[in-house]
Design brief:
heterodimer, A: alpha+beta, Sufe protein. Chain: A, three-stranded antiparallel β-sheet, B: alpha/beta, seven-stranded mixed β-sheet, 17 strands
């Protein structure tokens, strides 16, 4: 277990210069995530076209792991459809919680593999997963609203 | 001959040898345990007292006529008497065992608090632990009473004038901490108790962060409720104490029903047990009480005043050293503090700091310390907090300083 494996250059870079930082206005759906135990907070704003997530931004305050994870996530999910996003979410979850396993993270993860070091620091897993839970909530919120109002070809919001 | 000359100098190396856990390693590094404010470690005397009790004296208390049950009852009630002497309380009837400080406060809120009504006020301070905020919020919600909060200043000291100004005949209770867990600030409790009493308010003192660091004499303090936890005092977890004068407790309805708190039970009418048992429903944490008594013996043998002096010397040295670290900001610089230093390091979030320090064997608390209003006041999401106990030494501080250097390296 090495600190350098947790704080990889990619993580430090995305912490210092988070990508897609800010807020989309207007947006199609959004969600707030917060980690009451450590005070990490973030807000995701999303734009969708049909099934495809066309744009996403995040803002908030958090540790390097949570900031970098959110930044990497926005890059990874932008342009993807919901099935692909769900698949990524599952892979990330598996990678983060594979405590004690020496297996390499799946190649599909791309840059997100940089988060694999978190698995050896169980106390920090929730920092890395916060943004993914929040993304799930935002998408679910969107889906529910559409179910309530029928297919939303026009948004009045 | 001066009495002080007969006392040997405080030998922290010998004290450390009493705490087996301090000899363990973390990630291959020497353990620098700097989280005593969250929970103190146990000396061998406590571990062995609990072990002895479990091996030779355990049975349920206040129940059996057989010898073992009597031994357990004697051990448990002996512990209560030990706590009475420790606090200089008038009688064991005034010593109620609870699960901890949090439960002690909830007991007061749910039992004594029933008398509150619309228009009544409870006054707390901005520095309280959530355990001394939320039970009062819940009480106010139930009764229509109003919660008032006395502000603090940029140094992390109570604004005593504002505290006084918030007191009025409507104030039924002033509940405040003796020492801030997040900042280490020692509050001017003498003046606060007097001011509260002057308007006819009762006072509850949260002693969780104080009992292990200074001598507490509840009769000299003059407060109405005093609460603390065993595990901040080098004793076991899961046990706490509520002290109040007999007349006050006598006037309070029971809060939890069950065994041990009754005299007779029938479906028509139940009569309640005498003090303090009326407030102790169910089988208590017997071994915890035995451990707490051993912890008090241990601390008093070391000398609370000597421990206090040791911790103050460490506080002064560590504060000086930390101030010299570039980008480090100490949160809470009250004139009078216990061995607690909350801080942030520019460019490194406290949680990242906690992980890096851990990698160097340094255990500090990171987060909001169950005092979110304090974090909000200082406009920080969280802090790292180093806190000291009787076993903390210079090497711990040096290790912390080195680990902070490592954090700088990682984050550039």
């Amino acid at each position: 277990m090495d600190l350098k494996d947790l704080y990889r250059d990619v993580i430090l870079d995305h912490n210092k210069q988070p990508r897609n930082f800010g807020r989309l206005d207007p947006c199609d759906t959004s969600a707030d995530g917060n980690n009451p135990l450590c005070g990490d907070r973030l807000t995701l704003t999303l734009r969708l076209e049909g099934d495809r997530l066309t744009d996403i931004r995040f803002e908030g305050k958090g540790c390097a792991i949570s900031t970098a994870s959110a930044s990497l996530m926005t890059e990874a999910v932008k342009g993807k459809d919901q099935a692909a996003i769900t698949r990524l979410r599952e892979l990330v979850h598996q990678t983060l919680t594979a405590h004690g396993e020496a297996t390499l993270p799946p190649a599909e993860l791309g840059k997100l593999a940089a988060l694999a070091g978190v698995r050896d620091y169980p106390a920090r897993v929730k920092c890395a997963s916060l943004c993914w839970h929040t993304l799930g909530a935002a998408l679910e919120h969107h889906a529910q609203r559409h179910a309530d109002h029928g297919p939303a070809t026009v948004s009045t919001e | 001959m001066n009495a002080e000359m007969t006392m040997p100098a405080y030998d922290v190396a010998r004290v450390r040898a009493d705490f087996p856990i301090l000899a363990t390693t973390v990630r291959g590094k020497r353990l620098a345990f700097l989280d005593t404010a969250a929970s103190a470690q146990r000396p061998l005397a406590v571990i062995e007292a609990v072990d002895r009790y479990e091996r030779s004296s355990h049975a349920n208390v206040h129940r059996g006529v057989y010898e073992l049950s009597q031994k357990a009852t004697d051990a448990f009630e002996g512990a209560r008497e030990r706590v009475r002497r420790f606090l200089n309380a008038a009688s064991i009837k005034e010593i109620v065992f609870t699960r901890g400080t949090t439960e002690s406060i909830n007991l007061v809120a749910q039992s004594w608090g029933r008398r509150l009504g619309p228009g009544d006020e409870v006054l707390i301070t901005w520095m309280e632990h959530h355990a001394n905020i939320v039970p009062w919020q819940m009480l106010c919600e139930r009764t229509g009473a109003v919660l008032k909060v006395a502000p603090i200043d940029a140094r992390g000291e109570l604004d005593l004038d504002a505290f006084r100004a918030l007191l009025s005949p409507r104030t039924k209770l002033a509940a405040f901490t003796q020492v801030s867990n997040a900042l280490g600030t020692v509050l001017p409790i003498r003046a606060m108790i007097d001011a509260a009493h002057a308007v006819g308010a009762m006072t509850l003192l949260d002693g969780a962060q104080a009992v292990a660091h200074e001598r507490v004499d509840v009769r000299a303090l003059g407060c109405d409720f005093y609460v603390f936890s065993s595990h901040k005092l080098y004793g076991p977890t899961g046990l706490g104490v509520l002290w109040a004068r007999e007349a006050v407790l006598r006037d309070m309805p029971p809060w939890q029903g069950g065994g041990d708190m009754i005299l007779t039970v029938s479906f028509a009418k139940t009569t309640y047990n005498e003090l303090p048992y009326r407030f102790e429903a169910g089988t208590p944490h017997i071994s915890g009480a035995v451990g707490l008594a051993a912890a008090i013996d241990y601390l008093e043998a070391l000398g609370i005043e000597r421990v206090h002096a040791h911790e103050q010397a460490l506080l002064a040295r560590a504060t000086r050293a930390l101030r010299a670290v570039s980008g480090l900001r100490i949160i809470g610089e009250a004139k009078e503090k216990t061995g607690v230093i909350s801080f942030t390091l520019e460019g490194v979030h406290p949680h990242d700091l906690g992980t890096i320090l851990d990698d160097e064997g340094v255990a500090v608390r990171t987060g909001h310390h169950c005092a979110m209003p304090v974090m909000e006041f200082f406009d920080v999401p969280a802090t790292a907090r180093a806190s000291f106990g009787c076993y903390t030494d210079d090497t711990d501080i040096d290790q912390l300083l080195r680990a902070l250097g490592r954090a700088r390296e990682v984050f550039g």
